[in-house]
Amino acid sequence: MTRLPDFRLETYFSRWEFTARHHLTASDVQTMTLGELLALGDDQDRAAFENLSLGYTQTFGDPALREAIAGLYVRADAADVICFAGAEEALYLAMNVLLGAGDHAVVVTPNYQSAETVPLALCEVTGVALDPDRDWALDLDAVKAAIRPNTRVVSVNFPNNPTGKVISTADFAELVRLCDERGIHLFSDEVYRGLERDPARTLPQAADLSERALSLNVTSKSLGLPGLRIGWITCRDREVLSRLERAKHYTTICNSAPSELLARIAVQARATILDRNRALIARNLPLFDAFFAEFADLFEWRAPDGGCVAYPRYLGADGVEEFCTRLVQEAGVLLLPASIYRSELTPTPTDRFRFGVGRADPEEGLAAFAQWLRARR
């Protein structure tokens, strides 16, 4: 395994995720029970689950699951899809397949840590930062300037984690064009796609726009089913998919058969699940708006364009790191401070924290948070 640094987010979560009383930094939407998911299938689905053989599965993924996933795209079919044990395995193997010593990658920041650290373990990487002073805008000229003759990958994530930013369709199309005309693979993390506050701002999927692009998705985030551990890459470059399959032989080999069947039910019921999850976020946002309005002297708040995470600014003199530490220790309210999202590639804000808006019934956590803040005044 490539030598990698500690995964700061997971290390932090190992300490607090299941011990803190109020999880206000969750990156996924409220999940459902096994029974609720099975109820979204039909009698044939439920019988298949009850009688499922627990043997090995195909490395590329269950054919029926891949067919269902392909139905989410305009220009892809089942042969353009390969499934993984979550998005993390997919990202790790894709970077190892596409990059090597002597190559170069461009990565947009801030981001999920492995989007940066895995490429950095393999080759030279240049970061391009979203601009917090311009609503986290992406500077396409900066991306273009970062590209070198040996650039093999440009990696992006929209809706973005942690900022919730969604760029314009025109900018995304231009990004695809920049990569295509230079023979670069665009690696597009699309795990929050479908949770845009304004559905008109939903970006096309990169794999639909380019034969070379890789679209990453997963059941964990927009669908709120992280326990299934099923992710996928869609790419119309079959040679890349073949290399990904061979790389997967060294990690999970194949996915869990029960998870693949349940993932197929979820993908087929995607519209229903997304309607439910968007409604949940829409219900929650006024609660968060009211909370941050009460404490406007301490926070700069903006609801995310898409996804279920936001990246507010903390204005307190004690700094966001001490603030988040004391909050979880004294009030049991978990947030992710800016240090979790620091980049080795670009300057990144040091006064932000990640806030989750997709879990059910956040009132209790917000009340504990507010009570703690009032007591400090």
TrEMBL record:
Gene3D superfamilies documented for this protein: Aspartate Aminotransferase, domain 1 (3.90.1150.10), Type I PLP-dependent aspartate aminotransferase-like (Major domain) (3.40.640.10)
Pfam families, A to Z: Aminotran_1_2
Q: Which CDD domains match?
A: AAT_like
Q: Which domain of life is it from?
A: Bacteria
Where in the numbering of this chain does the Aminotransferase class I/classII large domain appear?
54-357
Concerning InterPro entries, the annotation shows:
Aminotransferase_I/II_large, PyrdxlP-dep_Trfase, PyrdxlP-dep_Trfase_major, PyrdxlP-dep_Trfase_small
Keyword tags: Aminotransferase, Transferase
The Gene Ontology terms for molecular function here are:
pyridoxal phosphate binding; transaminase activity
- What name does UniProt use for this protein? Pyridoxal phosphate-dependent aminotransferase
To which species is this protein native?
Actinomadura spongiicola
